[in-house]
TrEMBL record:
<dbReference type="GO" id="GO:0000976">
    <property type="term" value="F:transcription cis-regulatory region binding"/>
</dbReference>
<keyword id="KW-0805">Transcription regulation</keyword>
<dbReference type="GO" id="GO:0003700">
    <property type="term" value="F:DNA-binding transcription factor activity"/>
</dbReference>
<keyword id="KW-0804">Transcription</keyword>
<keyword id="KW-0238">DNA-binding</keyword>
<dbReference type="InterPro" id="IPR036390">
    <property type="entry name" value="WH_DNA-bd_sf"/>
</dbReference>
<protein>
    <recommendedName>
        <fullName>HTH lysR-type domain-containing protein</fullName>
    </recommendedName>
</protein>
<comment type="similarity">
    <text>Belongs to the LysR transcriptional regulatory family.</text>
</comment>
<dbReference type="InterPro" id="IPR036388">
    <property type="entry name" value="WH-like_DNA-bd_sf"/>
</dbReference>
<feature type="domain" description="HTH lysR-type">
    <location>
        <begin position="7"/>
        <end position="63"/>
    </location>
</feature>
<dbReference type="Pfam" id="PF03466">
    <property type="entry name" value="LysR_substrate"/>
</dbReference>
<dbReference type="InterPro" id="IPR005119">
    <property type="entry name" value="LysR_subst-bd"/>
</dbReference>
<dbReference type="Pfam" id="PF00126">
    <property type="entry name" value="HTH_1"/>
</dbReference>
<dbReference type="InterPro" id="IPR000847">
    <property type="entry name" value="LysR_HTH_N"/>
</dbReference>
Amino acid sequence: MSEHKANLDAWQVLQTVIDAGGFTQAATRLKRSQSAISYSISKLEDQLQLELLTIQGRRAVLTSTGELLLGRARQLLSDYQQLIDYARHLNSGHAAEISLWLDGIYPVQRLQKALLEFRQQFPLTRLNLQHGTTQVDMNEIDIIISPVRFPGKSHHQLGKVELMAVAHVNHPLFEVNAPLEAIDQAALAQFPRITLTSESALETAQNWPVTTLQQAREYILLGLAYGWLPIEMVADDLKAGQLKLLPLASGQHEHVSVYLQCSVQQPENKDVQSLTKLLDLA
């Protein structure tokens, strides 16, 4: 092989000749002269010291060696184009990554439409979705959805989450009092309650902290504890008779305000602004 490396442009020319159906078509597609196309492929063959094309009738077709090498070159050309597209993406002011942190209390299902639309609009921006853990530095997060308002963040109410007190249909709580009587706090205190790790004020020996609503639902369905879950998450379980509403004297339903929060210490880029707008419409 020549000491001069075969460049990507030459492989691009060869690929275009094959895909377009000939030298004339490739010249038209690449906006070059036909002689320039022929020279590029001839030089590539000289550098590789291999025959890549052969003429059959009036058509240029790949040799077996050319077919093998172009197969690999196609992947290189595709990777290179993706690299160029990504560089242009960053150069035009887009973010390489956006971090979105969801408090465990907020059902991620509500964001499905917004997240899918964002992916369609900004396919090259990586979305780092973190859910239900407090082991992060909130100063490093671009967008936060939480009932807790964090310092250094702009915020406005995104909506409310309706929580319902539920337990497995065979949970002992339903046997504490007569069926028509409400369960009081003293009775509740006798049994474990599922809480999210963000509910730090509720941490007691009787509480079982989990990091996600899905974990909370699984524990409650197993009859290990009772707890408050979003209505959309337990509607099917209630209908199927796996869970029951706890007849509490007070607090059977809770409404928690949830806030959409962004950093105010650095200007938002267009990706963050767009995702924020989509989340607002979710």
